[in-house]
Amino acid sequence: xxxxxxxxxxxxxxxxxxxxxxxxxxxxxxxxxxxxxxxxxxxxxxxxxxxxxxxxxxxxxxxxxxxxxxxxxxxxxxxxxxxxxxxxxxxxxxxxxxxxxxxxxxxxxxxxxxxxxxxxxxxxxxxxxxxxxxxxxxxxxxxxxxxxxxxxxxxxxxxxxxx
Length: 163
Prior knowledge:
Elements: H1 16-19, H2 21-35, H3 40-54, H4 57-69, H5 74-79, H6 92-105, H7 114-123, H8 126-149
């Protein structure tokens, strides 16, 4: 234990962005391209949900702080972990995006179900849906970098960097 009573902070395994700077720069560009045309608050909800599913503490820290900075409520962020039980906190469009996020993120059960895709396409124009799918794919990639290298949460300041 530390002097404040909390467990000590773990060290990152690898500063991957330092050792693979071209990959990092490409990811930042891909992330910027994927977010175009997607509502920023919806995007943060999607990024938080994918990060919950992938257990990426660093990305959870970043995207909850960014969501709060963008005007999202604490209550809606807290409820994301159990959104199916608290659907009344979200719009139908947000629910469709969360369903799609889960289906794209958790592929161990098979492909993205047709009904999930159809619900999403009922709420998003094709271009926006393509951007949303790209954003879900990119946050999943960021999550994998974060989890594999044990990036340390707790030090992110909103606006510091985007992914």
